[in-house]
Each structure stands twice: as C-alpha cells, then as structure tokens.
Amino acid sequence: MDTQDNILTIREYPWGEWAFGLLMFAIAAFSAESARGDWSISLIAGVAGLLFILFGTFLVIQADRSGATLMIRRSSLLRRYERVIPVADISGIQLEASQGSSSTYRIVVVTKENEVIPFRPVYSSGKLIKEARVKKLRAFLDVGGADLSAGGIFSQATQMAQQAFQQKQEALTGPEAEEHISEGVHWKTQTIAFGGRAVTRWFSPDQQCAGGFVFLAQKVSGQAAAAGGLLGGMNKFIYHELMGLYGFTGEDTPGLDSAVLLAAFDPQLDPYFSVYTSDPQAARQTLAWSVAPLADWASRYPLKTVQTSGQLFGQLVVMICPRGTYVASMGNMIPEAMQELINLGVALVKGK
Q1: pTM
Q2: What's the rounded Cα separation, in Å, for the pair 222 and 273?
Q3: Predicted confidence (pLDDT) per residue in 184-217, tens digit
Q4: Which residues contact 266 (CB under 8 A, 6 or more apart)?
Q5: Each residue of 149-178: pLDDT tens digit?
Q6: 15-33 and 40-55 helices, crossing angle to 10°
Q7: Could you tell me if 49 and 25 are in contact, meaning their C-beta atoms sit under 8 angstroms apart?
Q8: Burial letters 81-120, b for 16+ CB under 10 A, else e
Q9: Are strands 2-3 and 7-12 parallel, antiparallel or unpaired?
C-alpha cells in the first residue's frame, strides 16, 4: 500500500496462485520421472499449474483524491480489466460476505445507482486485511459504506435504536437540538442508546473539570464500596463499565487509569452516592456546593434493589468532565421526569 499526498495505491499480487502453479509444475516433473509410460498425472498437474500461472490476477486499486476517481485494475497474462469510477458516483465502499460461507469476503464499491463493483470477482479469506483496506479507502476518499464486522453491525443497530429513542423522547419533551437557558445556565438534552435501552442525559457546557473527571453514581442507601485491594480493583472495572453504559468515552475521562473511588466524601452524600474521580482534590472542590441538591434527590428518588415500573427514575449519574456537566438516568422520560432532571442539573451548575 503506497500513499502520496493525493494518491493512495493498493497492490495485491497473486502469490498464492503462482505458488500453487509452481507446485503443480513440480508435481508434474516428479510424476514424469516416475511415470513409467503413464503420463496422465503429469499432464493434469502441468495443465493445472499452467492455468494458475496464466490466470493469476494482479490487482491494483488507485484512489486519486485530486482527480476524484477510484481505479480498479485486474490483470493477468491472458486478460485485463480496468474500471475508473468517479468518487461522486460512489455511495459506499464495503466488505461483502459470501452467501455460501461466513468466512470468505470481498471488497465492493456500491454506486449511487446501486451497481455493485467488486475489487475481485471471487471471495476469499483475510477479513481483517480487507477491513483495514476498506477503512483506509473510506477515510482517504471521504465516502461511507456498510460495515459487516461484529462491531460495525452492533454500531449500526445502536444508531438505529438511538434514532428511535430520540424520536420518542422528542415527541414527549420537544427537539433535542434546542439549547435552553435556565437561571443563566445553558443546557440541552440528549438521548442515546445502550444495549437496547434508552439513556436520557441533561448536559451543560457551563461547568467543566479541566484535565480530569468527576463521576457520581447513585447507589442503594447504605451500600458500602471498597476503595482498595481486590474488591477495589473490581469496583474500578464496574465503574469503567458503568460510565460506558451511560455513553461516556475516553474524551470524557482523562486520567482514567489513575482514577480512584472516594470512600468518604461527605456524610450527607456518602449513603446515597459513590464518587469516582481522576482528581480527588478537584472533586471535593467541585462537589462542595452539590451536596444539598443531590441529597434532596436521593431522599425523594431513592435507588432500590428491585426496580418497579411505577418508579419515575432508576439510577442517577452525574459526570463533570472537560466537555461540561451531565446528569443522566436510564429510559425515555415523561415531561414531569425531564423537568426534575433539568432542575437538578441547573442546581448543580448554578451553585459553582
């Protein structure tokens, strides 16, 4: 694979076909020496070797960013194929799985006219290499395409679920894209999907934790948390998974590797919330004004071991990170619940 400023070239040599052809020639030669008048095996092996050599196909893919074209060229000793496709006509570049096998694939270009143009007409193994090439070409030409990897399929399903959850939430409480101001605090709502469930998040950029993060998770009243030892390590794993469940990524959690669980933060808050942070000092300063509204929330909406359908909220989490402040809970929210989430978020940010 060669990359210049405006041209990306992928070359694929038919090493397998050529090697097999040479092997057939060797078998033919060996059979000829020991044939004793029967030349059939030698002849068959020789013809097979010749065919593999003659029809072994050299593939060249050239993406020209300045010329806005993608060229596919296949050539062998006996035949040649070339197709130049304008990038403007490309709907996507993607991996296509063979219908008869779950382990063979080929790369195809799908045009906006729904024409499927394969790099090679045959399917073969080497999924990881093909996926890497697809990603490289997409990024170089700035085109999309379906993703058949397990992660890609999961991502597409998540996006579809997220759109459905977002539409449902917007039908209840209005468009998410709108930015609002309450008591001087700028905020908006977000709906994301995780594991087939909706997560509703309130977000404000007005309060941030530069260079680190502070994560609060509601817990069942009185539940203890181990800060060290084997159980402490397990707790870290649990909090990493929990943050992912609510849609937080590495950009939200700088310093994650050195994050710690604050075993004792405030006597009013400790029975109801655990605090996991990359900067304990910043956490204590940032949360100093948050104790009262969070304790009030926990008294009105305690987290229970067994959740029932009649509960307005499940677990509440708060994330303060370089992007801003999030307040989140599982599920789509009716207007009454959304207003409660908004009131809490505003109180947490306004108190700074």
Answers
A1: 0.59
A2: 9
A3: 999 999 999 876 789 999 999 999 999 999 999 9
A4: 287, 291
A5: 555 555 566 677 788 888 999 998 888 888
A6: 160
A7: yes
A8: eeeebeeeebbbbbbbeeeeeeebbbbbbbeeeeeeeebe
A9: antiparallel
